[in-house]
């Protein structure tokens, strides 16, 4: 997974011996005085660090733009061998998210240059609170450290071996230490999810996804049950099975339980994930272009597993169950056909219009099962619709909910996680679009409003249970690398789901 060692230091920046010391800078230009061209400021009180960069800052060559970097070797007066300045962008807009990305940027600066160890200095505590910053910095370091080149035979492991956060010694040490420890757990859990999402379909079949979930559960102390065809049939999961029936690979029904000993009442949170390890479209076969991307169609399920890992280690006082429905979606003599009629576990009948709308089928039974296992509140995550990508691009993921109170908690979670979700509408008019002539509902609602009709489909199975649906189709895979994250699996939703759970 990740072998990066992490430390927290309260030492004086200029005395820290390291291969690379990363310090933040901000652009102080404001829109009120657009003609003034003030120099960027370093976000540290350390006089030696300031002196070391004074000349280059005075030159005006460096603007401290977002994730803009500047490297100095052998900085005068410092024990560090190199000093890296990372830009936070406009000071007035400085935010914890920027610190997360800056830490990732510093790590990704170090990696290709053979630098295996670095120290990242938090910004001034007056500007941003040290607790949230230290956590974000560690998360960002894990995000930056991950590269997807697992299967290169000449792979040179460039990962950072040691990442240290340097915090001001004036800040409340215990709080900062706790936030640091959280950051490590969250960062590692997001990496767990990303390495799973990165796996090709032949390296991560539904069975193997179940095995990985079970191994993780054993490691962190979660109850885990993985079953397959027999159990799926026994539970009458007709919607899940309708997808699985078309593949030689057996499906996996993965159930994880987090049950803190002292919590016997209150809500039970149900996390449900789409685990399509490869989506060919089935008989409604997808075009060949980009079909290889559909190995990441299990990103929702992997996000739930990563969140469960973090939950097990952070131990919130709330019960959580997780259901991941893992299957391939393949064309086959035994595959379901457009026009087929399926009966879901809930008893609702589904007319199959397009076998490529398979995610909502597996989730339908996953939601019903989570409720049967006792979930009082539901959240699902899925790479569900291309329509969501059309609506929001690869910037925001879509979010839907049948309950404003439950959604408000998720919205609060986003402030901490720093992930971008945008709420999209449900509504009776969308529900109307998925009515079937021969049964209860059909599995597609036509060309328009596809993200909302898919969400309405899931809502039929959430019923009256407060529920949130996350459509992460556009953001589960980073198409172009950024300074702080490699091209490849993003690990989106792990942090937000975790924070939502912790809000109970
Ligand atoms: N897995 C896809 C959705 C998807 C699209 C994920 C792009 C990631 C990137 C899903 O199973 C699918 O095929 N959805 C169809 C639904 C349609 C047939 C109603 C779609 O969006 O085209
Ligand atoms: Mn599909
Ligand atoms: Zn799919």
Protein architecture, described:
The chain is built from 14 helices and 20 strands. With 504 residues, it is α/β, with parallel strands linked by helices. The protein has an eight-stranded mixed beta sheet, with helices on both faces. Strands 1, 2, 3, 4, 5, 6 and 7 form a seven-stranded mixed beta sheet that branches. α8 (299-314) links the parallel β10 (268-279) and β11 (319-329). The radius of gyration is 24 Å and the shape is elongated. The two termini are 29 Å apart. Ligand BES is lined by residues 279, 297, 354, 356-359, 383-387, 389, 444, 450, 473.
Count of alpha and pi helical runs: 14
**Beta-strand proportion:** 15-25%
> Overall pLDDT, averaged?
97
Biggest sheet record: 8 strands, mixed
Bound molecules: ligand BES, manganese (II) ion, zinc ion
Helix-strand makeup class: alpha/beta
Structural shape? elongated
List the SSEs and their pairings.
Layout: E1 5-9, E2 21-27, E3 41-42, H1 47-58, E4 69-73, E5 82-90, H2 96-110, E6 117-121, H3 130-145, E7 162-166, H4 173-198, H5 206-220, E8 223-227, H6 229-234, H7 238-244, E9 252-258, E10 268-279, H8 299-314, E11 319-329, E12 341-343, E13 349-351, H9 359-372, E14 377-382, H10 386-392, E15 397-401, H11 404-417, E16 421-423, H12 428-433, E17 441-442, H13 450-462, E18 467-471, E19 477-478, E20 488-489, H14 494-502
Parallel strand pairs: 1-7, 2-5, 2-6, 6-7, 10-11, 10-14, 13-17, 14-18, 15-16
Antiparallel strand pairs: 2-3, 4-5, 8-9, 9-11, 12-13, 15-18, 19-20
Helix pairs in contact: 2-3, 3-4, 4-8, 5-8, 7-9, 8-14, 9-13, 11-14
The structure holds ligand BES, manganese (II) ion and zinc ion (ZN).
